[in-house]
């Protein structure tokens, strides 16, 4: 949104296309889990049509919530263009792309080993799998060698897969087994005989027993070994994770129950050796959190060789650039593997694969029925026993008459297949239209590093394939916001943060400004949160226990607040609080950063506008500009230039910091304070007002992409007071700050020497204020300042002497190279200036010296105590390291305080 608003202000026709994707696996998993928890039903109980109907209802409810949250956050989208990856426009693009790939022989069906989710009963991509170490066992067993008394030992973490073993593998140079290569072993569980093979890629003679059981249908490394050695592939699992008929007497058992029985049976048969407890890395489905099974299955694939190469070339030749650039490595490394893309999923929610099977048709039948139709393609691959008909539109099944039945494939496409088409599908492709010509390719994609391979790479290759051009020129990778425990936020973990809670608490602009400050080139940002008592405001930090699903029985969890003793339901991605319930909403002190800034901007802008009575637009004579005017214009030009540069590099945190520092530290804390006397002086007021209006106008425009709501309100108020503005050529202001031009103050305003001189003035004023604080002098008490400095500096300071009185209630008595320090004065030193504040008559010097001496003695005693502790070897050796370190830090602080007190005594001692 920040990019869209900024580019629109720069004069571009900026389109941010809003929409949602159908999230096939994730969405079906959530709906199925709820059915199971609330009704004890599975999808098979209600059937495909009923499940899909339920998911559409769920989608409508949550899509509305997602889009409403985006609107509330101020997303400046063209909402009339909102798209959904299962809508008619996107579906048409999906069908055309599939047909095109099928016709070009880039899509094929094959039996491959895939990651199988037994809960969802579907294949999942490698990128949708995570590994987690869990407590497990490492078993060692033996197989007897056929026609011999010898046995061969091996180890495994999945004993049930012995039922699908088709070989035992050893290293060809392992002398322990060279005499056994070519012989056979017998699997005691079913009596099947399998060969002992030599394979240097699979077996490691230094690891374990050196022998490895080989189950090609249930392990990716074994699968590769099986292909190399032409081994049989025996699938022993059903799609739901139970054992199938190939498992013999274990058929019907759950995989874990089969594991226990296999171990017990091998023990009883005398072939169990030992078991060790270990932490075992186990792959899980990211969607269902179920341990996945390597599973032999018929799937649809996209050939990636030529498609991947085109996407590789696009980054390597600079047509697509990553920001930060290091993320191009993730993209390139994945594409260079050129692994074929498994695009089929055994789900019911999604784009159904547009393939129909006919096992009774002849080629002549198909030519007669479909030969002249451009939107249908058919073929029979070598491995197929039937014809495959791909159609862009649904076939009824009777196109070939009653003698031949067409049956559609049951699977749906991987969600990322349709998401990969988003940049051109949402603009109406494959139809030709002005929007597609005008807005494709886009300029920038903003996304997370997690989906560089899943989404970014596939958008590039499908864009090149369908459109002949890349879909975007820049890819901006933003940091990922984690929870307070360093975990990725997700629906399945229940640790997401409802933006509506944050907006209600802090205001939308505060949320936006804070999040923009997170968006740098770091990888992750942690966001600790808590829950706020709706009555007392007490905050309880979130714990891992709060990230939960609804407990058994359906009662929604509550959080108890110690001070009030009351309990409330709280917001969670897992459930909505009951109607009428008071809710403990999520809060985070991190958003105080944005709220404090917005309050500062609001108050400063209101003050400025309250002092614009009598404002009249007119060109300013540069000679009428004061030092502070020229300084703020120099800083404005520099900051606007810096923001344009860093936003072009997508360094949002740098831009946020730059505009905050300018607004808070320079405009509010210095410039507004400096011009107050001029705003109240009828002679000086006109120029001061015109500069103030010009700077405020530019400031609101610079801030608009970050905080659009508050800047729009302030802009409208400023338009009422000063509809025409501009320092040298006043003109009518834009109706809305959103469509006002991005500020580009001339570089000629920048004056680095002036900024250095102004910095010296600021340092002097701060030094005077510090002396007031040290000696507890009231801000209302006038002070006298003497400066020892070169003549040029003295002239500078005399020209702005009024600011010493204005900002520090201090009269500049004299400045020059021969200025002497008055007796009884406090001093400060800068690079080229020594300053003296006369304190005689302001404070009781003798009493102050006595107080300082007492303070010094007290500090000295504390220092000696700390030094004594650190000199005690027993204390240093035996006390916890953090305690010793604490004493060292305390000592350093005490010594610093003593030095400050001694400096003050030395200054006052010169009275």
The CATH C-level name of the largest domain is Alpha Beta
β-strand percent reads: 15-25%
- Return residue spans where pLDDT drops below 50 for at least 5 consecutive residues: none
First-residue to last-residue Cα separation: 63 Å
Averaged pLDDT: 92
Q: Based on CA inertia axes, which overall geometry fits?
A: globular
Q: How many structural domains in the coordinates?
A: 6
Helix content: 40-55%
Question: Could you say what the CATH topology of the largest domain is called?
Answer: Rossmann fold
CATH superfamily of the largest domain: HUPs
| CATH architecture title of the largest domain | 3-Layer(aba) Sandwich
The number of helical segments is: 27
Topology summary:
Blueprint: H1 2-9, E1 19-20, H2 24-39, H3 43-46, H4 48-72, E2 83-84, H5 88-103, E3 107-117, E4 122-124, E5 129-144, E6 151-156, E7 167-170, E8 184-186, E9 193-198, E10 211-214, H6 220-229, H7 255-269, E11 272-285, E12 293-302, H8 305-316, E13 321-323, H9 327-337, E14 341-342, E15 344-345, E16 355-358, H10 363-370, E17 376-379, E18 387-391, E19 407-408, E20 412-413, H11 415-419, H12 422-425, H13 434-439, E21 444-448, H14 452-467, E22 474-478, E23 480-483, H15 499-506, H16 508-518, E24 524-527, E25 530-532, E26 539-541, E27 558-560, E28 567-570, E29 583-587, H17 592-610, H18 627-648, H19 652-679, H20 685-703, H21 708-721, E30 724-725, E31 731-732, H22 752-774, E32 783-788, H23 791-799, H24 801-808, E33 810-816, E34 825-829, E35 834-838, H25 845-871, H26 873-878, H27 881-908
Parallel strand pairs: 1-2, 7-9, 13-22, 21-22, 23-24, 28-29, 32-33
Antiparallel strand pairs: 3-4, 3-12, 5-6, 5-11, 7-10, 8-9, 12-14, 15-20, 16-18, 16-19, 17-18, 25-26, 25-29, 27-28, 30-31, 32-35, 34-35
Helix pairs in contact: 2-4, 8-9, 8-14, 9-14, 15-16, 16-17, 16-19, 17-19, 17-21, 18-19, 18-20, 18-22, 19-20, 20-21, 25-27
